[in-house]
């Protein structure tokens, strides 16, 4: 497959880096202000030089001399949308995806915005296109959450829950293990690169909620006979509580009773909820550090648990490239 | 008092004792009952409330006397578990009422479900004992255990771990009541994942 990678952050760069290993070719890469589009002018028949792109991004902060619009117009089979997640109208990611669909090309998203905030609009665009969309990388990084739900069939899945934010989980784990306060552990997480300078998106539960909203859409649209009848979820439909004010004393009291607190997200075809919850200390859901876990409740197959790395460039890129493989 | 004792309970007492040995299976098999009583905070009240149970053929199992925890009417809630046949049970409740004991609840159903949760925030400033007695006043649940962790002073938020006993199938109702109370007092509630043996 020929890929156009839009977005040159950790995930976009890893996709560029690993594409060849999965048998794909990158024909265009764009960041927010520049692009590189393969046209044979660099003496190569096809494809951009992944190493050159990654190096140039690291050294000069740009990916090439072309305009980002050129990358969107390039001759690709699959557009990889890996720009930062935006809310509400989910732009510019949403337009990148619909541009690909209008050209009857596929799109693979690592950007949560379009699938969380405008799932219905995307489904309508897919219905009018010969292209498809896939978005495994938007939920739980390397964990195959969406494709597992699809394999079981959304109509046979009653709920999906889990720990879907590594930053919040790292903070809760450290607070409980070391008896430290939230502020101290947050500063530590920021030094380690586990938390961003502005950690709101993670610690307020927004990121986990977006993932649950996406899962709720998968369940709702997947179980409906006619997509027009399916209930669409957006972030506004989610009940969200974060971990910012959880005191160390609460974790201590939980530990005294063999329990701990985890930021748990739950999605059904009807509700989305993210909140700190009490779980058994040694239970399945009490994963440690930046680990994520997805727990799927099914009608006939019992409960499935999949844990693993929920973030990271190569991890998320592996989910993106897995999606590309499914489109072949 | 003595009028009442001579009245209603007596025939009931004679009847149950005489008929139970050869009565129907359901009626003659003793089962566990829980009654929730409200007692006036005066000496001797508890003993007075237990007499009608023992006198009418109830086999006392446990007494949970929630001293320090008052109902909205300022009385002390007491929970009594005992074994009795269905017929005797009805006689006991009748005897309690005719003794002037306020029976808040009487049923064969014991608290079947247990749920642990955390509350944090300004627990002290928002009157923890009021919080607990209001949870207690909720029909679905009873507070079985409370652990409190409060930092020095009341500036920082404190935490409490509560173990509630809820009636069969009423855990969700009990949690809803706590949720509402937490909202009202601006406390944060960490609910357990119920129905999930994680």
From TrEMBL, chain A:
Residue sites binding L-homoserine per the record: 196
Annotated Gene3D superfamilies: Dihydrodipicolinate Reductase, domain 2, NAD(P)-binding Rossmann-like Domain
Keywords of the record: Amino-acid biosynthesis, Methionine biosynthesis, NADP, Oxidoreductase, Threonine biosynthesis
Pfam families registered for this protein in UniProt: Homoserine_dh, NAD_binding_3
Gene Ontology terms describing biological process: methionine biosynthetic process; threonine biosynthetic process
The Aspartate/homoserine dehydrogenase NAD-binding domain, residue ranges: 7-135
Pathway where it operates: Amino-acid biosynthesis; L-methionine biosynthesis via de novo pathway; L-homoserine from L-aspartate: step 3/3; Amino-acid biosynthesis; L-threonine biosynthesis; L-threonine from L-aspartate: step 3/5
Active site: 211 (proton donor)
Top EC class of this enzyme: oxidoreductase
InterPro entries registered for this protein in UniProt: Asp/hSer_DH_NAD-bd, HDH_cat, HDH_CS, HDH_short, NAD(P)-bd_dom_sf
MF (Gene Ontology): homoserine dehydrogenase activity; NADP binding
Binding site for NADP(+): 7-12
Region described as Disordered: spans on this chain: 307-328
UniProt-listed Enzyme Commission number(s): 1.1.1.3
Domain Homoserine dehydrogenase catalytic: 146-324
Binding site for NADPH: 112
NCBIfam families, A to Z: PRK06349.1
Family indicated by similarity: Belongs to the homoserine dehydrogenase family.
PANTHER family linked to this entry: HOMOSERINE DEHYDROGENASE (PTHR43331)
Name of protein: Homoserine dehydrogenase
Protein's organism: Halorubrum aidingense JCM 13560
